[in-house]
Amino acid sequence: MAQYALMVWGPSEYGKFGSYATAEENAAQLAATGVFTAKLREEGSLVFVNGLAEASASTVVDGRGPTPIFTDGPYMESKEYIAGFWIVEATDLDAALRLAAGGSRACRRKVEVRPMAGE
Amino acid sequence: MPPNPGAWITTTANRKAIDRLRREALRDSKHKEALVLHEDRPADPTGAVEDDRLRLIFTCCHPALAMESRVALTLRMVAGLTVPEIAHAFLVQEAAMGRRITRAKSKIKAAGIPYRLPEAGDLPARVNGVLTVLYLVFNEGYLASGEQSDPIRRDLTSEAIRLTPISFS
After folding, report:
1. What's the mean pLDDT in B26-48?
2. Tens of pLDDT, residues B142-152
3. What is the pLDDT of residue A46?
4. Which of B49, B123, B148, B155 has the fewest Cβ atoms within 10 Å of its own Cβ atom?
5. Backbone phi, psi, residue A15, to 5°
6. Is B121 on the interface with A (CB under 8 A)?
7. What is the pLDDT of residues A58-95, one digit of tens each?
8. pLDDT value at B49 more than 50
């Protein structure tokens, strides 16, 4: 068993309906994502899940020097940012990719799959 | 009259051979389907297709790898070509080809690409991917040339022909 991060990529700005254009779209993806995540929990695959606030709510911290430096905004300017993620347990990449396909369909976004570092 | 009739005939004959093998493989799979309806034997637990080399080729042709990586890795691991030979076929520097193959192997290890045959439900899409790679391998086999190598690279083309019907079974 290995752990994989399923990272959802979304737009840089959120509007009235989170990162979705209309109320209908947001409601549909919420419902679908809810079903998907519940199924992950049932199967024992889910380690953690949550969405992220929009990128402009970020603060970058550089603690490498003598005093920490704080910068307003995300680390990198980009058209898209990570909007949320699932951490899942899966036997191998094939299993993780199958889960990611379901997650991507549910939240109507592309999902990046990266293995967590081993123990 | 084509400019190089010998080469044209060989290409055409090889293409026809592959088409014939494909059709025969499909016919066999239809026979197998008919048998399955009447057989009482339980399904083979090791997977839908039996061939150790096929495990290797499905791994090398995994969709999580970029197409050029799949082709290079298949040529190296399945067809057993050397890195210089593959580099020459792709018209890239040896060092670059070496890096491409090393990165592909690292990706397989780091991402946990499994060394096993795909689940039956995934097979049709994965077989298409393998056939694409085999087609490219066959083309490289035909086109590859060098001071020492046989212009037709019979080992590559026979590998492609051997594996194509198995992929369909």
Report:
1. 49
2. 445 444 555 44
3. 98
4. B148
5. -115, -145
6. no
7. 999 999 999 999 999 999 999 999 999 999 999 999 99
8. no
Candidates B114, B119, B122; nearest CB to A93: B114
Using alpha carbons, select from B7, B34, B24, B44 the residue that is nearest to residue B165.
Answer: B24
In this structure, how many other beta carbons lie within 10 angstroms of the beta carbon of residue B120?
A: 11
Domain locations along chain B:
5-168
Q: Report the pLDDT averaged over residues B46-73.
A: 81
SS3 sequence, A55-113?
Answer: HHHCEEEECCCCCCEEEECCCCCCCEEEEEEEEEEECCHHHHHHHHHHHHHHHCCCEEE
User: Chain A residues with CB inside 8 Å of B119's CB?
Assistant: 94
CA–CA distance, A10 with A74 (Å, rounded to integer): 14
**Which helix (DSSP H) or strand (DSSP E) does residue A3 occupy?**
strand A2-11
C-alpha span between B165 and B22 (Å, rounded) = 6
Question: What is the residue whose two structure tokens read 């809810």?
Answer: A34
As given in the structure block, the two tokens for residue B2 are: 């084509």
Q: How many CB atoms lie within 10 A of CB B40?
A: 4
Tell me which of B61, B108, B113 to substitute to probe the interface with A (most A C-beta atoms closer than 10 Å).
B113
Q: Does A42 touch chain B (CB under 8 A)?
A: no
pTM above 0.80, yes or no: no
Contact between B145 and B1 (Cβ < 8 Å)? no
